[in-house]
Amino acid sequence: MSQKLKQNNEQAALVIEPSREKTREAGVKTPSTTLEKLLFILSRYREASIAAVAVVLVVYFQIGSHGQFIETQFLGVVFRDTGRFGLIAVAEVMLMITAEIDLSVGSTFALAPYTMGLLSVTWGVPLPIGALVGVALCVLVGVINGVITVRFRVPSLITTVGTLFFVQGIVVSIYNSQPIMTPVEEPFNEFFGESLYNPRADALFSLHSLTAFSPVLWAILVVAVMSVVLNRTTFGLHTIATGSNPIGAREIGVRIDRIKVYNFMIAGGLAGFAGVINTLQFSSADPAAGAGFLNLEAIAAAVIGGTSLLGGSGTAVGALIGAFVVSTLNNGLVMIGAQATVSDIFLGAGILAAMMLNVQVDRLRTRRRI
Amino acid sequence: MNPQKIAPLGADAPTILEMRNISKSFGAVTALVDASITLQRGEVLALVGDNGAGKSTLIKILSGFHQPDGGVIILNGKEVLFASPRDARANGIETVYQDLALIGDLSIFHNMFLGREYHKRIFGLNLLDNAKMRDLAVKYLKTIEISIPSVNSTVDLLSGGQRQCVAVARSIYSSPTILVLDEPLAALGVREGGQVLGLIQKLRRQRDVSIILIVHNYNQVFEVCDRINFLHSGRIVLNASTDETSEEELIRIVKSGLGEQAMLDRALEAGSGRS
């Protein structure tokens, strides 16, 4: 037994020798081979790989469409979708980092503009105020999602499927699923999404041409804000901690339940905001605007952008690029003459490929300690 | 002689903690019976015992997780009652649990300052002062000589021993009076365990913080602690200072003190098992 003790002592003594320890313990290797360098870039900048994919897609569609892809009018459509998906995707990123998910964005997307339209046509409430009320209602849906998830311990996948149908049902039943024509109130409409661009009369770099991009500009602004929130604020730090190690985070004093509820509120609010932008573009509030696959497309954008469903990691910028990829696939394939239905095949394959790549990069990162 | 040898703690070192006649039951299960421990300033005390001996319950009472059924806790001469872990922490008692509570996806320096972040105002916004936290973490980890690759690397890239060291470093950063380490060597290989023991030894040499170590196996910690308390069935059956005794003697004392073959077996197992 004393033999063993001696061994232990030697071990203890060995450790205190710092120089020797350093060389043996160095966990971070400098990448040497090309593969390692590539993986290093991928693991450091998740956005880099998806940005490369986006560039390849644009080049492909530009050639396939004989130079019509990069053109203000068409890009306006792609960016409109990018803005819509991007706003929701970045909210999903925050939630997915906390290891939760929100499927009810499909109906909050319709709730906010429908509320805005309803208030406008029944009481003549100005659109900006109606929009605020609508977005506030969506934030309230977020509170409900959050409280049911953290208090009643219902998995958020189930909670938000419930509120998805519930809210959708309410919105649809109000006017027997009739869309509401909303008035145009300038500069509100122009500022938030109505495209005034006329390709024959307006120069590419003009105020009117800018309005063709206002949805995506709002999305870029929101993504920039959320990036700062995620990386430079206590809230962002605690959001990552909540998803990465909930028990540990709670022991340290992170209020994980509260963090989750806040993120559900952000998701509700951003989906409502995206819905308002969408409606202002056409001046029509469709009660079923978010039905179909909007929520899943936004989640796809987040996943393609490098956010893991397991919690703990994700990037806002990646979500925006992911949203661009999703809307480029949706619109670009149609543009080069493919059937509209074909784009789903590519989108599906894209999601699977992105997920496999994410998992692979993660595994290699931890194994090789890059 | 061994340069690692540390002078024994003087008898004049003030008593910092006394847990007197602590008892605790959970329903029909008696976890602690009149257990008393004392701790001097700067002392390293090992609580040794089998699974279910009551050592975890004892430290959970100290760290505010459980409240005792009977007995008193005297901290710095004052009787205290901890209603929650937050209470204990506010009174300078930091506990590193087995799960370490580290966030794998965050960098080492973010982990060190999680829950007590530094901020600076930029354009009226209250943003994290990452540069300051990074610098402080580098400086601090250097003073306690923990070797880690870089404070920027995420915790999930660290080895088990490095994680334990980071968790200990985070706990002592707030300069607690008492540091409780729950099974710091569990799930660590010999070399990695050595890393943790090295850190405990460093802290012991400075004699700033008093440490309570919970271990299964006292021969792992014999060299780094000043005193060993054996727990068995919720009672402290032995309180021995390591500079007056040897491992073999400990076994003898335990044997004669209890006169039970079962207890001897258990002590032998505790002494030479594992590793």
Description:
The complex is a heterodimer of chains A (370) and B (275). With 370 residues, chain A is mainly α. Helix content of chain A is 74%, strand content 1%. Chain A has helices at 2-16, 18-25, 34-44, 46-64, 72-97, 105-123, 127-151, 156-174, 188-192, 207-211, 214-232, 234-244, 246-252, 256-282, 294-304, 316-335, 342-368; strands at residues 180-181, 284-285. Chain A is globular, with a radius of gyration of 24 Å. Chain B has one domain: P-loop containing nucleotide triphosphate hydrolases (Rossmann fold). Chain B is α/β, with parallel strands linked by helices. Chain B has helices at 55-62, 85-90, 108-113, 130-143, 160-173, 190-206, 247-258, 261-272, and strands at residues 15-26, 29-40, 44-49, 70-75, 78-80, 93-96, 119-122, 125-128, 178-182, 210-215, 227-232, 235-241. In chain B, strands 6-9-10-3-11-12 form a 6-stranded mixed beta sheet, sandwiched between helices. Chain B has a 4-stranded antiparallel beta sheet with strand order 2-1-4-5, covered by helices on one side. At the A-B interface, helix 1, helix 2, helix 12 and helix 13 of A face strand 8 and helix 6 of B.
Tell me the layout of helices and strands:
The complex is a heterodimer of chains A (370) and B (275).
Chain A: H1 2-16, H2 18-25, H3 34-44, H4 46-64, H5 72-97, H6 105-123, H7 127-151, H8 156-174, E1 180-181, H9 188-192, H10 207-211, H11 214-232, H12 234-244, H13 246-252, H14 256-282, E2 284-285, H15 294-304, H16 316-335, H17 342-368
Antiparallel strand pairs in A: 1-2
Helix pairs in contact in A: 3-4, 3-17, 4-16, 5-11, 5-12, 5-14, 5-15, 5-16, 6-7, 6-8, 6-14, 7-8, 7-14, 11-12, 11-16, 12-13, 12-14, 15-16, 15-17, 16-17
Chain B: E1 15-26, E2 29-40, E3 44-49, H1 55-62, E4 70-75, E5 78-80, H2 85-90, E6 93-96, H3 108-113, E7 119-122, E8 125-128, H4 130-143, H5 160-173, E9 178-182, H6 190-206, E10 210-215, E11 227-232, E12 235-241, H7 247-258, H8 261-272
Parallel strand pairs in B: 3-10, 3-11, 6-9, 9-10
Antiparallel strand pairs in B: 1-2, 1-4, 4-5, 7-8, 11-12
Helix pairs in contact in B: 5-6, 7-8
